[in-house]
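hey so i finally got around to running the thing on that chain from the lab meeting. sorry it took forever, my laptop kept dying and i had to restart like 3 times. anyway pasting the input first so we r on the same page abt which one it is
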Amino acid sequence: PEVLERGIEMRGRAGLRVLYTLPNDATVTFGASVTGGNPAPTLTLALEMLNSQGVFVEVARQSFGVVPVGENRSFTATFTPALLQSFLGFVGNHVVRGRMTLANTIGSIDVLSNQAPFTVNQPPAPSLLPIVNPDFELAGLSGWSPFSTGLSTVFADNLNPRGGLLSMGVSILDGASAFGNQFVGSRNNIYARVYFRLNLWTPVQHHCPIFELMSDELDLVVVGFTGGRNLHIWYRAGGVNFIGLQSSYVIPFNQWLCIELSRTRDVLTGSISVLVNGVQVLSLTNLDTGDFPVNRILLGNNGRVMNSGQASYNIDDVAASETGPVGC
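ok and heres what got predicted. didnt touch it at all, straight out
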């Protein structure tokens, strides 16, 4: 490690250690030992990656505040595999380094750590759950236990297939229930994907469901949209059902979208995430999702979120995994 000093004001030492490789249990830990000066300096640690143009680019940073005069402290900043992999976006060999910045009213110094090789491995393909008739091609809605009430209906639609001959059509009037669903076993973690196309939406109560993860008859996470077609979720956490969260993403008409929903189960570190066409639009972490596992996927409207309004949309090519994202 390099050591730099500026007079007697402040001094620091930085070292970098890379443990394992992405994406399995990988952690890059960057630690610094700092001796406070007068005026006392603040400490910031940053992780930098060498990009394809041969330039080190910052991918994560953590600030630690003021180091008191005469005190020697050690800090560790851990940067997660998900963050690093989302930044890199490709597999291969890379170089990583750490940068420590000390700053006070007199000035600042940067201390660069040693450089270390870093390998991003190809993530293993997820193990898919057995879903009956996921693309509706073989037998319409067979396997999905279709249910309709009032003037709402769920049906096998040959007018708006995504690629084959059929998709699931959902037509909702006055918020009446229309859905298909099937059990997927008891899953603590689940990553579900559906393709979705919105054809018509006349908002009255300003929300409409698309699909959801359930535990028997209990709604755990519902993906839908608002009156302005902003993608929206309702979720259960810490025993409280239907906490709402709206994204800035606006769902277009007459366009197939790949929507991915994940839910991990834990009383402290549970998470919920929604991606559209591979881009994250909603993310929640450190939730209490420990009450119930997921055992059912429902497509359409079960009547507990939407009270009125008129909607028409299609769903196709459903997939789910317990081991990782399915992808688009």
